[in-house]
Design brief:
β3 and β4 (47-50) form a beta hairpin. The chain is built from 11 helices and 6 strands. It has 271 residues and is an alpha+beta fold. α5 (135-146) crosses α8 (177-195) and α8 crosses α9. The longest helix has 19 residues, at 177-195. A 6-stranded antiparallel sheet has the order 1-2-5-3-4-6. The protein has helices at residues 77-81, 95-99, 101-112, 117-126, 135-146, 151-156, 162-173, 177-195, 201-208, 213-224, 228-236; strands at residues 5-9, 18-24, 39-42, 47-50, 67-72, 92-94.
Length: 271
């Protein structure tokens, strides 16, 4: 059975809010792990929003079923979707349930032609009262994603009351800064392990910003249900049938604008 996963960059006009468009046929062959993002996913007969996860999730679709999706940049989905991201946390919500009749109409159009995803999002953005994103949320997301500062340090730079900003952050991202920092650290340690396959867990934990190896083990267990060794070993293993290629892999002769990578920072796909 032919299985694929590929990402293409968002159109320039949407690049500030959309990370990429993707297509997949890997189904529920492996868990989807938290990465702090939201997606609109188009299946054969439904369209749904996949909210930000705090634990592993398995797709209900069989291997080989084609899915198409649009992945928002962290903190940018809520203003397009029209609901706080925290209401979508750990949820898969049909677009028709989210937007009512408008969502049902959009579902019919997208199932018929998934390429209309970009037009849908562009239209929603065009109807916003302001195109300006929340700069403070963007700043804290950037600091925590790169590990260039801790939560308290990042919040100290924001000219708002801490409670007020935490509410704004949760509404935009789907969970508070502390939870997002945990998710971002796990993404970093997996990226580091792929680039440095001989590194020890202690070295990876220190480089990713964990207090120690035990801290990494606790977060890994809470967010993925696996030990760090098992998780990173799965990332390093050659991809068997039903598993996506490692980051940076390109199929021979592939379009240079299409990158085959693990979606949602898991070996499975978001759908």
């Amino acid at each position: 059975m032919s299985t694929t996963y590929a990402e293409v960059p968002a159109p320039a006009a949407l690049a500030g809010d959309v990370h990429c468009l993707w297509r997949s046929s890997f189904g529920g062959s492996a868990p989807i792990l938290p990465d702090g993002c939201l997606d609109i996913v188009v299946g054969p007969d439904q369209v749904f929003v996949a909210g930000p996860d705090t634990g592993p999730w398995f797709s209900p679709y069989d291997l080989g079923v084609p899915l198409h999706g649009l992945r928002f940049r962290t903190g940018r989905a809520a203003r397009v979707l029209g609901v706080p991201a925290e209401e979508l946390r750990d949820q898969r919500v049909d677009l028709a349930d989210l937007w009512g009749a408008a969502g049902a109409r959009a579902t019919r159009r997208l199932v018929e032609c998934p390429d209309r995803l970009t037009a849908l999002v562009a239209g929603r953005l065009g109807r916003l009262r302001t195109r300006e994103a929340d700069r403070e949320v963007d700043h804290v997301v950037r600091v925590l994603s790169t590990g260039s500062g801790r939560v308290r340090e990042a919040l100290a730079e924001i000219p708002l009351g801490e409670r007020q900003f935490r509410r704004r952050f949760s509404a935009a991202v789907g969970y508070g800064p502390a939870t997002f920092a945990r998710v971002a650290r796990l993404v970093r340690v997996r990226d580091l392990a792929r680039g440095h396959p001989r590194a020890t867990l202690a070295d990876l934990a220190a480089a990713a910003g964990y207090a120690d190896q035990a801290h990494l083990a606790r977060d890994c267990r809470d967010l993925t249900g696996a030990t760090p060794s098992a998780l990173l070993r799965a990332d390093q293993d050659p991809a068997p049938a039903g598993r996506r290629p490692e980051p940076g892999h390109r199929s021979p002769g592939a379009d240079p604008n299409v990158t085959s990578v693990p979606y949602k920072q898991g070996v499975g796909g978001r759908g």
